[in-house]
Amino acid sequence: MDKKNTRFYRGKSMKASFRVGDRLHIKPVLINKLNRGDVIIFQDISQNGEEKELVHRVVSIHKDGLYTRGDNNRQNDDILVTQKNLKGIVTHFERNGKKKPVKNGFQGMIKAKIRYFTISIKRLIRIIFRKPYRALKKSGLVPKIWKPQIKKIFIKTP
C-alpha cells in the first residue's frame, strides 16, 4: 500500500462522512477535473506558519480555484484551493478493515446538503427548547414526579 496516497482522518468537520481513524485513499487529480461535491485533501498554512492538511468537500468552483467546506461546518473555508495546494481527491476509505467508496460529485453534494440541513434543525431545536428545559430542570419538578427504579444493570466489556 502506498503511504503517500493514504491519510488517517482526524477531526470533526467531516464527521458525517468519516470517523477518526478512517484510512482515506487519495488519488492525485488536476484541479480542472474536480466537481462540486468532491471530497478533496489540500494543504493549508495557518497564521502561525504551521502546515496542515484539510479534508473538505468542494462547494464552489471559480476561475482562480475552489472553495470548500466540511460537511459539519456552517461556513465555507477562507482558503482558495489551487493546483499548488491540492493533494488529491478522496476516492474511498477503510473502516474496520472494510473499504467503502466516498460519495463524490452530485451525490456527495446532496449528502452534504442533507447533513447541513439536519445540523441546522438540531441547532434550532436546541435554541427553542433551551429555556423551557432549563426552567424545568431548575424547578426540581421532574425528580418529584418521575422516580424510576433500576432493577438490573448490565455491563458489557469487549
Question: What is the overall pLDDT average?
Answer: 88
Number of helical stretches of at least 4 residues = 2
- How many DSSP E strands? 7
Helix content: 25-40%
Question: Uncertain spans, ≥5 residues at pLDDT below 50?
Answer: none
Largest sheet: 7 strands, antiparallel
| Rg value | 21 Å
**Class based on secondary structure composition and strand pairing:** alpha+beta
Shape: elongated
Order of helices and strands: EEEEEEEHH
Beta content: 25-35%
Distance between the amino and carboxyl termini: 30 Å
Describe this structure in words.
With 158 residues, the chain is an alpha+beta fold. The protein is 25% helix and 28% strand. The chain has two helices and seven strands, in the order E-E-E-E-E-E-E-H-H. It has helices at residues 105-139, 141-145; strands at 6-8, 23-27, 39-45, 51-61, 66-69, 86-95, 98-101. Strands 1, 2, 3, 4, 5, 6 and 7 form a seven-stranded antiparallel beta sheet that branches. It starts with 5 loop residues before the first strand and ends in a 13-residue tail after the last helix.
Tell me briefly what this model is:
The protein is of the alpha+beta class and 158 residues long. It is 25% helix and 28% strand.
